[in-house]
Amino acid sequence: MAAGGTAAAKEHGHPKEKVYVVVALWLALITGLEITISYIKMPDAAKIVALVLLSVIKFAAVVGYFMHLKFDNPTLRKPFITGIILAGAVYTIVLLAFTLHSNVAPK
């Protein structure tokens, strides 16, 4: 074991607690921005795009830092990222199927 920390911490190169606090503050800031956007009068499409983009950023930060995926072996990252992309594709296909085959005209 190395001096000044555990062997596991040195091996994976995890950041100090300060980094996690900074990431949490950024997440809180993005959440506040999302709430602000939800109250702003703007076209629905622009609002949805902005909120989805901010959600993707928050998701990446949580997964990367708090689930330690950023610090893991890239071999372990690939199945996770593949699953997320597949889930997003299936969600989009189902959403489009329901939208295109509904009896209600889109706004």
Characterization of the model:
The chain is mostly helical. It is built from four helices and no strands. It has helices at 7-12, 17-39, 44-66, 74-100. Helix 2 (17-39) runs antiparallel to helix 3 (44-66). The protein is flat. The N and C termini lie far apart (63 Å). The model has no long low-confidence stretch (mean pLDDT 82).
Reconstruct the topology from this structure.
Blueprint: H1 7-12, H2 17-39, H3 44-66, H4 74-100
Features:
107 residues, mainly alpha, 4 helices, flat
Summary of the model, kept short:
The chain has 4 helices and no strands.
Structural class: mainly alpha
**Global geometry:** flat
Beta strands, count: 0
Low-pLDDT runs of 5+ residues are none
Distance between the termini: 63 Å
Largest sheet: none
Question: What is the helical fraction, as a range of percent?
Answer: over 70%
Strand fraction equals under 5%
Mean pLDDT across every amino acid position: 82
> What Rg, in angstroms, do the CA atoms define?
19 Å
**Strand/helix succession:** HHHH
Number of helices: 4
